[in-house]
Write a structure and sequence with these properties.
The chain is mainly alpha-helical and 220 residues long. It is built from ten helices and three strands; from the N terminus they run βααβααβαααααα.
Length: 220
């Protein structure tokens, strides 16, 4: 499987997706449009003959918000080329855009069937959020690799972070968990880090200041 990941936006997604396909498959015809490139991959080019191409469209609500009812868009025509064997698409969208994504798939003539080609992703509970945060910590080399124990200080850090990230009902939004890990990936994962920076809110402020106001920040 060859994954092609593209973060959606209100415009320009077709150009970026086509560029991403060309990077993976430079043998695609130079003059091919996105729809023509998708059709070529569905039929199987010399480079893609033994692979399935998986197009991942993340944050797709950004595109939907500006293209509702646009049944002639290049992106829609390209997605119509997906056959599920050589070419497949995975679309991620917020639940409040469910009607928009329903109309989109109606336009590509694909019925949405829960458990077959669609699924809802629930928010994380505290137990699962702690496990995911620990894996992110290992990925950022902030926590020891398994089977080594995490340690008491790191354990306290995880417990407090999950507690402060939790919203109503104790549920944690996955993207907040990921963003938090990104903000502290260069700091020790200990309770003192949370305390010194003023908890979750303080870490967010510090992250923004370091990103935009630091001496090393690009002027743009």
């Amino acid at each position: 499987v060859v994954p092609i990941y593209v973060e959606a936006s209100s415009d320009g997604i077709e150009i970026r997706l086509l560029a991403a396909l060309r990077r993976k498959f430079p043998g695609l015809p130079a003059s091919a449009s996105l729809t023509e490139a998708a059709a070529a991959l569905r039929e199987g080019t010399a480079e893609s003959a033994d692979a399935k191409v998986l197009i991942v469209l993340d944050q797709f609500e950004q595109w939907l918000h500006h293209h509702l009812g646009d049944s002639s868009s290049e992106l829609l025509q390209a997605i119509r080329q997906c056959d599920g064997r050589r070419l497949q698409a995975l679309v991620l969208v917020r639940d409040d855009f469910w009607m928009g994504i329903t109309r989109f798939f109606r336009a590509v003539e694909v019925p949405l069937v829960e458990g077959q080609n669609s699924a809802a992703v629930e928010l994380f509970d505290a137990v699962h959020a702690r496990r995911v945060l620990a894996e992110l910590g290992r990925a950022h080399a902030r926590l020891p690799e398994e089977p080594a124990p995490i340690g008491s200080e790191a354990g306290q850090f995880l417990e407090r972070a999950v507690k402060e990230l939790a919203g109503p009902g104790g549920w944690i939004v996955p993207v907040r968990l990921s963003l938090f890990a990104e903000m502290v990936k260069h700091r020790p994962w200990t309770p003192s880090t949370l305390r010194d920076l003023g908890g979750i809110e303080g870490i967010g402020v510090t992250f923004l200041e370091e990103t935009f106001a630091a001496q090393s920040a690009p002027p743009a």
